[in-house]
Amino acid sequence: MSSTNQFTGPGASTVAMSARQEFTPEQLERMKNAINCFVSPSNPQNPPGAAIAGFLHAQDLMNAHTGPIILAEQSPPISFLDLPAEVRNKIYRHCLVVGKVFPRRKALADRRIACFKEYRAPQTRLFLVCRQIFRESAPMYFGLNNFVISYGGPYEWPWHDPLELWNNPVSSSAYQHLRHLSISFDARDHNSIYFLFGKDSLSNRWIEAKLTASWQSRQKIMEALSLEVLEVSFATCDCYKCGQRLVTKAVELLFDNVTTSAKMILSGFVTQKEADEIRTMIEDEIGWDTEDKDPTQPEMIVI
Predict the structure, then answer these.
(1) Where does the chain show beta strands of DSSP type E?
(2) Which of 4, 174, 199, 290 is deepest in the core (most CB within 10 A)?
(3) C-alpha distances in angstroms, 120 versus 43, 99, 145, 149?
(4) Contact present, 194 and 242 (Cβ < 8 Å)
(5) Are 142 and 173 in contact (CB under 8 A)?
(6) Smallest Cα–Cα separation from 203: which of 193, 189, 217?
(7) Residue 198's pLDDT is what?
(8) Is the pLDDT of residue 163 over 90?
(9) Which residues, in sequence order, are bridge partners of residue 184?
(10) Organism's domain of life (predicted)?
């Protein structure tokens, strides 16, 4: 059986055996010739092969040494949890904070999902190491990433039922620490009933009622979150049957039921005129203040 550990390197017995090993003159000469190929004369004080050459020089002295070779006592391995908290946090950040996370990404989602390849996947298997590592790292994962949710009914959300899943540590941590969320008001949020039954068998009013019920259920989920930023896209907020835009209805639902104090970013308007009409509706009819229009993104509304 090999004494090499894939995580910690050679075992103590292997190190001890290597320390006792002596090379023949022919082996040493071949090794020196190989190392000379890597030694650059441009920097004679610190050539690339100096460390290895030094080892071989020491080996020459060891060959001439008549006494036994004594292996220095090795330091015991250090546990990851023995590292300072500052060091562990840097490792957690490197592994888990990636900018945007796309849970349950769908191939036909809106343009918010199109950029997913620009972000590396978080190393969430770190959560499985032990409970302490999960407790230390999960708040950073949920609190410092922007979670971009694809279209779909609320039952498809990763944390869709806070009452049933509260005892689940991942869901519990999500509800406690999630701060940045991006969602869409999408005509596919009603479980794509249009595709199941066909457009001729469904009325516009029935489709709108199903969407309304789905969106209301989803907003109940958001009530349990302590969000700082909520991004809402209306890019595909239209009826599949007649093509009518449902943005006005979606905005009414959003502000009728909103309880979050998070900063809201509304995007995905198909025209500048639509964005201006919704901005006027929010300010005059709903009574919410909006930030000044950004010249670089005039179609975006920030509240």
Answers:
(1) 4-5, 9-10, 100-101, 146-148, 180-184, 229-233, 263-267, 301-302
(2) 174
(3) 39, 9, 12, 17
(4) no
(5) yes
(6) 193
(7) 52
(8) no
(9) 233
(10) Eukaryota
Nearest to 77 by CA among 157, 159, 11: 11
CA–CA separation, 224 vs 46, rounded Å? 61
**Helix 169-177 × helix 131-144 angle, to 10°:** 40
Q: Where are the domains of the chain?
A: 12-64, 83-302
Query: What phi and psi values does residue 232 have, to the nearest 5 degrees?
Result: -125, 125
Phi, psi of 47 (to 5 degrees): -70, 160
Query: 60 is written with which tokens?
Result: 């020459």
Q: Edge-to-edge strand order for the sheet containing 263-267?
A: 100-101, 146-148, 180-184, 229-233, 263-267, 301-302
Segment 252-288, tens digit of pLDDT? 888 887 766 789 999 999 999 999 999 999 999 988 9
User: Which candidate, 273, 274, 265, places its Cα nearest to that of 302?
Assistant: 265
Nearest to 96 by CA among 140, 132, 129: 140
pLDDT tens per residue across span 27-84: 666 656 655 555 444 455 555 555 555 655 555 555 555 556 556 566 677 788 888 8
Nearest CA to 183 among 217, 149, 160, 139? 149
Count the Cβ atoms, other than its own, within 10 Å of residue 243. Answer: 8
